[in-house]
Design a protein that fits this description.
It is a single chain. This protein has 70 residues and is mostly beta strands. The chain contains no helices and 5 strands. It has a 5-stranded antiparallel β-sheet with strand order 4-3-2-1-5, with no helix packed on it. Helices cover 0% and strands 36% of the residues. A hairpin with a 3-residue loop joins strand 3 and strand 4 (56-61).
């Protein structure tokens, strides 16, 4: 699935990706917005930038994210 800038997401699970760090566990359940989907590559294994409510902006593995309905 391709993510696009401005889409609303939820961090719904811990990632299996090696880019997942222990501190990211606290992000599970958080909602946010895609700020930089790295659309030129659109590699499902790459990290994408999301702005999480009350948590700041972070680069997270795509397999930990799911789209929320508008």
């Amino acid at each position: 699935m391709a993510f696009h800038r401005g889409q609303k997401i939820e961090v719904y699970k811990k990632s299996e990706d090696e880019g997942w760090e222990n501190y990211m566990d606290e992000f599970v359940g958080c909602h946010g917005v895609i700020t930089d989907p790295d659309s030129t590559i659109n590699d499902p294994d790459s990290l994408i930038e999301v702005s999480l409510e009350d948590k700041g902006t972070h680069r997270l593995p795509q397999d930990s994210l799911r789209l929320l309905a508008d």
